[in-house]
Amino acid sequence: MLPMLLASWPNCGSAVGAAYAAARVRPAGLILAKGTLALALFWIGLGHVFANEASLWKALRTPGHVALIRHALAPGIGDPAAFKLEDCSTQRNLSDAGRRQARRIGERFRDHGIYSARIYSSQWCRCLETARLLELGRVGELPALNSFFSQPELGGKQTRAIRAWLSAQPPSDLVIVVTHQVNITALTAIHPRAGEIVVARTSTQGELVTLGTIVID
Predict the structure, then answer these.
(1) E strands along 7-113, which residues?
(2) pLDDT in tens, the chain (217 residues)
(3) Closest CA to 116 of 141, 135, 132, 140
(4) The CATH homologous superfamily of the domain defined by 61-214
C-alpha cells in the first residue's frame, strides 16, 4: 500500500524515499524511519494545503468568480428581541477581535494582488462594518443578503434572488459579498466560520460552483 501511495506522489522528495528504504532494509531503525516518514508526509500535506489556498486566490483574480464572506467575529447567536435594522445599538455587533479580523481579511486580499472589488453587504450592521473594514472599495447594501435566521420561510426566495443577481454580474469584476452563515449555507451547503471566505465560480445559467474556503482567524 505504501509503495503505491508514494508512487502516486512523483514530487515527494528524496527524504520520503530514503525513509521508506530505511524502514524496509534496516528493521532496527524502523521506529526512526517511521518518524522521518511521518514528518516528510506532514510537510507534503502542508504544502498541499498551501497550494490549494494559492489556487483559490488565483481564482479570485480570474474573471467570473465571487467571494462569499461571513461577517467577522460577533459574539452571540441571532439578534436581540428589540432588533432594529436602522439602529446598530439594538443588534449583535462585531467585537474588537472581529474588527481586527475584518482588517486582516482585507490585508490578505491585498497581499494576493486584489486591491479593489465590487462589494455588497447585508444591511445588518455587523456585515456592513466587516465589508467597510476590508477597505477594498465602496460598499453597497443588498437586501437579498440579509439574514433569514429568524424567518427561515424567506430563505428560498432570498437564495433564488441572490443566485439570479450573481449570475447577472459582469464576469470581469470580482464581486465580494458579506453576509450571514444561513445565507452562505443555503447557497453553497458550507457552514462557514466567522470571517471565512467561500470562493465560488458563477455562470449566466445561475449556477454557483464552490471551489473551496479560506479561513482567516
Answers:
(1) 65-70
(2) 444 443 333 444 434 333 333 333 333 333 334 444 444 434 444 444 444 999 999 999 999 999 999 999 999 998 888 899 999 999 999 999 999 999 999 999 999 999 999 999 999 999 999 999 999 999 999 999 999 998 899 999 999 999 999 999 988 889 999 999 999 999 999 999 999 999 999 876 768 999 999 999 8
(3) 135
(4) Phosphoglycerate mutase-like (3.40.50.1240)
The cell numbers describing 57, all together, are 486566490
- What is the spatial distance between Cα 188 and Cα 179, in angstroms, rounded to a whole number? 13
The residue extents of the domains of the chain are 2-53, 61-214
Report the distance separating Cα 185 and Cα 191, nearest Å: 5
Helix (H) or strand (E) holding 210: strand 208-214
- Find all residues with CB under 8 Å of 165, minimum gap 6, and list them: 142, 144
Nearest C-alpha neighbor of 60 from the set 7, 110, 135: 110
Query: What's the pTM value of the predicted model, to 2 decimals?
Result: 0.76
